[in-house]
Design brief:
Elements lengths: L25 E4 L8 E5 L2 H4 L3 E4 L3 E4 L37 E6 L1 H7 L11 H7 L4 E7 L14 H10 L5 E5 L2 H8 L6 H12 L4 E4 L12 H15 L5 E4 L19 H18 L10 E2 L1
Parallel strand pairs: 5-6, 5-7, 7-8, 8-9, 9-10
Antiparallel strand pairs: 1-4, 2-3, 2-6
Helix pairs in contact: 2-8, 3-8, 4-6, 5-7, 6-7
């Protein structure tokens, strides 16, 4: 099987606008101890380049009557620092058949597109996608994002994807989600891991999808590494029934030194490596002239 994607023909920016809340949604208190966190929200960054900072309230809008937790996004540096000279990234393995890419992520994607975390534009995510042959890229990264739950004023991953597809996007999808979904399930959500993955796969309508799996350095709590491993196992299980799905095994390559002190987010060096690695993995998952034969891409 070979996937050849179609460019989006230079269509107008596909902004993600929150729709009016459905009757089944209500506000619930966030898990105690995680309050007033700074959320860095990047909306359609690949098209607009706009960045906005918002304060997260101590509540979240959720679906299905389940609790939500909020992933704290660290403050950006007071002074813009150059990307560490020690960063060494190998050359890309090749080109991808994905001429158009839609990347939907949480706070672990924000740093890959932010000039406050990566000073050199050539090392940011959009440029890395361009280096492997992507001509059209949509990127929407938002702190605290999950597939189901929504922070106030935020659009969850599923609604971003469905809006983009409805407005004409056709191409490859990169879903860098799951860190907050796993935490929400651990906190008591009645929407399980498999159901969340299934929602996002349905939004892709059979187009090529690459998931970036999850990893933290935490030994306890909703964002523990044990919970992340459960999410990664759920991805592998889902891949067996979705021939258009691949998984980039980011968790296997993360080095503790790439993390900030919170054990979840990344340093500037970590974001540079992550951006390069995701693009290179996409080229291996859906290469020009063929396709990978295994669910998991290393």
């Amino acid at each position: 099987m070979r996937w050849r994607t179609r460019p989006d023909s230079g269509s107008a920016p596909l902004a993600s606008r929150p729709s009016r809340g459905s009757g089944g949604k209500r506000r619930l208190a966030v898990v105690a101890g995680i309050v007033a966190a700074l959320i860095v929200s990047v909306v359609s960054a690949a098209l607009t380049g706009a960045f906005s900072d918002t304060r997260a309230a101590a509540a979240a809008r959720t679906g299905g009557g389940h609790a939500a937790v909020t992933l704290r996004t660290p403050r950006t540096p007071r002074r813009l620092a150059a990307t560490p000279a020690a960063v060494r990234t190998p050359g890309h393995a090749g080109l991808t058949s994905c001429s158009s890419v839609a990347h939907i992520g949480d706070s672990t994607s924000v740093g890959m597109v932010s000039p406050q975390w990566i000073a050199n534009p050539a090392q940011r995510l959009r440029a890395q996608y361009r280096d492997i042959g992507v001509r059209h890229a949509l990127i929407d990264a938002s702190g605290g994002r999950s597939i189901v739950e929504e922070m106030p004023g935020q659009v969850n991953g599923y609604r971003v994807a469905t809006a983009w597809f409805r407005r004409g996007f056709r191409g490859c999808w990169v879903f860098a989600l799951g860190t907050n979904d796993t935490a929400n399930v651990a906190a008591g959500s009645n929407v399980g891991l498999a159901a969340r993955i299934g929602q996002m796969m349905s939004a892709a309508h059979g187009e090529p999808v690459m998931w970036v799996n999850t990893q933290t350095d935490l030994t306890s709590g909703p964002w523990s590494e044990a919970n992340m491993q459960s999410w990664n196992s759920a991805l592998v299980a889902a891949c067996q029934s979705h021939p258009n799905m691949r998984i980039f095994n980011w968790a296997a390559m993360v080095h503790p030194s790439w993390h900030l002190a919170d054990g979840i987010h990344y340093t500037s060096q970590g974001y540079v490596i992550r951006a390069h690695a995701i693009a290179a993995a996409l080229a291996r998952a859906f290469p020009d002239g063929g396709h990978s034969s295994h669910c998991v891409v290393k």
